[in-house]
Amino acid sequence: MTRFRESVRSLLREQVLDAAYRLVAAEGWSGLRMTSIARAAGISRQTLYNEFGAKEAIGNALVQRELEGFLIGIERELDAHRGALEEAAAAGVGYTLQQTVDNPLIKSVLVAARGGEDDLLAYLTTRTEPVFGTAMAMLDAYATEAWPDVDAESRGLAVETVVRLTVSHIVQPVAPPAETAARIARITARIAYPGGT
């Protein structure tokens, strides 16, 4: 019975997050109301409040779900270039930057933020712990295994640099994704291997 309840709860959460995703992608975060999310998810407002408590919790869950999808894609890109750190970094960063261009939720958040209207962007800029903490932990663990010859301090600096620069270019792009990815990858490789590889 407990497993059944957990499955139902998981399905409910996904249903709510799917509905919220569609609404945010179409209308932005700032005007989104719990009533609209409940209606779009096909549940009562009370059920929504019981499950999430507040709109901010839905925002956090949306960001976490998107981040998990990104990290799976990044790992796939890194694996394809595991033999060379700079190429792997370029592939991972390039994937991330291109996905943010193509992702309707992120596109909506960034467009609204440029108009000064969207506070979901705070999850990338001021309330960054879920994004930065998760991304840096995953990348540090990956780099430890893939490039064991990089010392811990250099690895930590390289991981923090690649994450922070990538997020910065998501929020405020200055060049096409491939060009930016190549630059960030060069910086990362120089930090990891200061004397050259």
Any overview of this molecule?
It holds the Pfam family TetR_N. Residues 33-52 bind DNA. This protein has helices at 2-27, 34-41, 45-52, 55-80, 85-102, 104-114, 122-125, 129-146, 152-171, 177-192. The protein has 197 residues and is mainly alpha-helical. It is elongated, with a radius of gyration of 19 Å. The model has no long low-confidence stretch (mean pLDDT 86).
Question: Nutshell version of this structure?
Answer:
The chain is mainly alpha-helical and 197 residues long.
What's the structural blueprint in terms of helices and strands?
Elements: H1 2-27, H2 34-41, H3 45-52, H4 55-80, H5 85-102, H6 104-114, H7 122-125, H8 129-146, H9 152-171, H10 177-192
Q: Keyphrases for this structure?
A:
mainly alpha; 197 residues; Homeodomain-like_sf; transcription regulation
Estimate the global geometry from the Cα principal axes: elongated
SSE arrangement, N to C = HHHHHHHHHH
What is the number of helical segments per DSSP (H or I, 4+ residues)?
10
Quantity of strands, as a count: 0
**Uncertain segments:** none
Radius of gyration over all CA atoms, rounded: 19 Å
Largest sheet: none
Helical content stands at over 70%
Measure the end-to-end span.
56 Å
Nearest-integer average pLDDT: 86
Q: How much beta, percentage-wise?
A: under 5%
Structural class: mainly alpha
